[in-house]
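Form P-L/3: holo structure prediction, ligand protoporphyrin IX containing FE.
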Amino acid sequence: MAAAATVTAPSRALLLMVSLALLTAAGATAALSTKYYNKRCPALQPAVRSAVARAVAADPGAGAALLRLFFHDCFVNGCDASVLLDGDGGEKGAGPNAGSLRGYEVVDAAKAAAEAACPGAASCADVLALAARDAVSLLGGPSWSVRLGRLDARAASRDAADASLPGPGSGLPSLVAAFRAKGLSARDMTALSGAHTVGRARCATFRARAGAGAAPGEAINATFAAQLRGACGADGAAVAPLDAVTPDAFDNGYFRALVERRGLLHSDQELFSGGSQDALVRRYARDGAAFAADFARAMVRMGNLAPAPGTPLEVRVNCRRPN
Ligand code: HEM
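OUTPUT (holo model):
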């Protein structure tokens, strides 16, 4: 008590400054831990999982949406939930995201469940990391321990999203470079691309590969290309499954499709096109357990991507806006 009484007004201000300074990237994200919420909010993980399970039971596509949201969050200024912020100039308006990224309302539901369990405790970035893991395991994929303790950004940058996210027309060297720029290896890139074992893509993203405008020598199975052209018609907004074999199951069907030259996106097929990743794709195609183990490890590594030092951070109450 005596000690508390000696805290003067200036020293209180100093303490406040010090604690605010700690809520920047350097202090806040250094020590992600699987035990972060053990005392702070033991009910967090079950709360998030039930919200995700409800959404995936109603629509398996919700699981794919959550997984992609996490990738698009982590690749743009680290895993800081910046992708969830509404507003002009934010990441939601970036080329790879606008009219395409989905599942925001599922994150809202998971965050509401987290707030009900422990008000103000869990960041949107952690809720999204848990939701992505739960989505994968609910769709039949691997599970892993999520390292936690992320904080949320107060701002989002459309330009950063446009600059950081690889596009579906990318060749293998630029895919490798985009992941290398985030400290992830070519092997991580190939394993993480296995996320395309679930979910859908709009015709606009693969029409050129399947159609008359295909690049000379585009590696595509002719029957598959004809099917895609039929499915798309004139409508660029129609969708096709990224994994035609088992569209809603998280398995290694994506890699089997690549070996048969039935990858949906040009960037998918680039992983099996006579280049450095062919052997790994063949391995994942015949050994689902090897893919599952590598995917889980790579998701942990992607989840470690941190905001730049000095970024102002907080635990947002509403994932769509800063506090
Ligand atoms: C390697 C580079 C990648 C490229 C070029 C790429 C590109 C794309 C494109 C163009 C779509 C379809 C979007 C649309 O039509 O609206 C898509 C969907 C998807 N991507 Fe990727 N992606 C990549 C890596 C990843 C990674 C690393 C993950 C997750 C770990 C991921 C998860 C997904 C999922 C789950 C979907 C389906 C989403 C849904 O159904 O809503 N992608 N991706």
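COMMENT: The radius of gyration is 21 Å.
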